[in-house]
């Protein structure tokens, strides 16, 4: 009998993507981008029509990562205290006791965030930027990791309040799921949907694995030539007369961070120009406003990439 070859356990990235793609059918690129957003220590915005799987994607990631999960359904009458928490008077101790809101979780689903007023939307700004919240004069740290997945409906739908640019910039990536292809939709029809699989999903990460992967992502090598190419893309947006303004230095750092995560998810320790090109639409579209109105689309980003051919 020939000796058995040793088996190699799949990497955490492979395990996470395999579990997520078993629920979110036909959207492997979007699930990979969502994971890269977490690996790059950012927050994710998903914009699309109702019913295409935005909420299911958030639930799936929280489940396979094994993190504490909270969901907030945003409505027009919601107040900041509904997110952050509130203090109540305890008669027994004669002191006020703070009751934490749903923001005190590791994965926060901000569902239909643009149905809340700007005042309520802004309650998440400090949490997303600093990993803490300040209420009633006291600053309280949030759990680690802290990952916001916000969904929003198209601005053309009734009852939406557009996110201001300052809030949009807090999201590392913005993705769209879109309709499933024919085969994926047939599988959904035959199975009756995949959300019932969520309780059966196994956790794919052990204690400390995410923090270790995030450190490995930050260490992925980017050569001087790669940085030259990335800077050329950023500078091109600042010189494009079709745009109100170009990408900021923070956006450039975001682009590099996500490109590193994309390379890491492919099992590489060096960023390639193709990595930058792959993640550029998700990083840039919600940050580039057109002079003619609205935000840059995929065709605008593709034209930008074509304008700077690789040597």
TrEMBL record:
Keywords: ATP-binding, Nucleotide-binding. The keyword ATP-binding applies. InterPro entries: AAA+_ATPase (IPR003593), ATPase_AAA-3 (IPR011703), CbbQ/NirQ/NorQ/GpvN (IPR050764), ChlI/MoxR_AAA_lid (IPR041628), P-loop_NTPase (IPR027417). It comes from the Bacteria. Residues 40-181 form the AAA+ ATPase domain. Signal peptide: none annotated. It holds the Pfam family AAA_lid_2. One of its GO terms (molecular function) is ATP hydrolysis activity. PANTHER family: METHANOL DEHYDROGENASE REGULATOR (PTHR42759:SF5), MOXR FAMILY PROTEIN (PTHR42759). Belongs to the MoxR family. This is ATPase. It comes from Candidatus Accumulibacter phosphatis.
